[in-house]
Amino acid sequence: xxxxxxxxxxxxxxxxxxxxxxxxxxxxxxxxxxxxxxxxxxxxxxxxxxxxxxxxxxxxxxxxxxxxxxxxxxxxxxxxxxxxxxxxxxxxxxxxxxxxxxxxxxxxxxxxxxxxxxxxxxxxxxxxxxxxxxxxxxxxxxxxxxxxxxxxxxxxxxxxxxxxxxxxxxxxxxxxxxxxxxxxxxxxxxxxxxxxxxxxxxxxxxxxxxxxxxxxxxxxxxxxxxxxxxxxxxxxxxxxxxxxxxxxxxxxxxxxxx
Amino acid sequence: xxxxxxxxxxxxxxxxxxxxxxxxxxxxxxxxxxxxxxxxxxxxxxxxxxxxxxxxxxxxxxxxxxxxxxxxxxxxxxxxxxxxxxxxxxxxxxxxxxxxxxxxxxxxxxxxxxxxxxxxxxxxxxxxxxxxxxxxxxxxxxxxxxxxxxxxxxxxxxxxxxxxxxxxxxxxxxxxxxxxxxxx
Lengths: 258, 184
Fold this sequence. Notes:
Chain B: It holds the Pfam family Sedlin_N. Chain B: It comes from Aspergillus sclerotialis. Chain B: This is Trafficking protein particle complex subunit 2/Sedlin. The complex is a heterodimer of chains A (about 260) and B (about 180). Chain A is of the alpha+beta class. Chain A has helices at about 5-25, 30-40, 40-45, 70-85, 90-125, 140-155, 200-215, 245-255; strands at about 165, 175-180, 220-225, 235-240. Chain A is about 50% helix and about 10% strand. In chain A, α5 (about 90-125) packs across α7 (about 200-215). The radius of gyration of chain A is 22 Å and the shape is globular. Chain B is an alpha+beta fold. Chain B has one domain (about 1-100, about 130-185): Beta-Lactamase, CATH 3.30.450. Chain B contains 6 helices and 5 strands, in the order ββααβββαααα. In chain B, strands 2-1-5-4-3 form a 5-stranded antiparallel sheet, sandwiched between helices. The longest helix of chain B has 22 residues, at about 135-155. Classes of the chains: A alpha+beta (about 260), B alpha+beta (about 180).
């Protein structure tokens, strides 16, 4: 409970590593490895009463389904309350929200590609042409940002983000900004005056960070309030890419990769 | 044709592996590698040695399916790779069956040998097994990878799964086996 999700993810990586060192060692008896779960499958593996596991459900089934906004708002308010316990300050709270979003971003990335892939293949099947190819993994920063700004935002909020900008300052070429005029997560959240720095869209920033990290673009993402007269809830997500990413970006630019 | 399929996390920890043989053209689906049974770790050595090439190809080619990327001639092992957007690697090692000259019992007449040669060439033109770099094989492996990818996405969408965890689900294993039987 006290562990941060990301740290526990790291822990599970290291433990599975040691498990798998063993697994590598007992590779001589793969048959035993295989037969243990199948033997114990009837008593050990619990299958829902309709005999359908997650593997039997279609991933596109809930594609156009929408979540009730009220239940999401309730759930999200509970998440904020949960994160608010035992925090030392606003930054700590935002960090916790960020960490709640991070694993979600890693997952959404694969789901997003699966859905675009399956829709493009099914459309190519129907039109019996191979013109539409499966989507490419983003290799450069700009395609990644377009992926976040467009498809990811549509998957989450049914619309694109409102703006995508590059930092104009020459000292920080690694900073990009994605703007959402009215973030859905903040719709029913009123921040007390003494915590005016807080932006609960740090959760969404965590999702973005997960997507960037998943694609291999190490980044730090934070959410900032930037109200305008027209959009009092306007939020800017600031993406700061790491040095390794910027170095690779230069190499890839020279190699002519898009 | 024998196959060894493995899923590696972005930090190269193995998450899942399975060995199987072809089920096409009368295959029984049992892996028969050229290494002795006591040296099956060779498959893992060969697969992991191709990771450098995967990491190089990863940034040059934006496709998820990177096709056939590496060959290990001493064992006639061919390696195909598939990268999920979140950096998980699917690697498939395929090894065509040993040429019949060494494995089959000799002493066949000229007629029968020419007949068997004709039948094997017919089999190789149609089957995935004998011709590891043909476009048909690439296509079959791609279909296999896509099917595994679908099941992998289902796995990671589970709220109880965290990135980097070993995939232990027996249902996942049967799904991969079924995909192998279907395409390879």
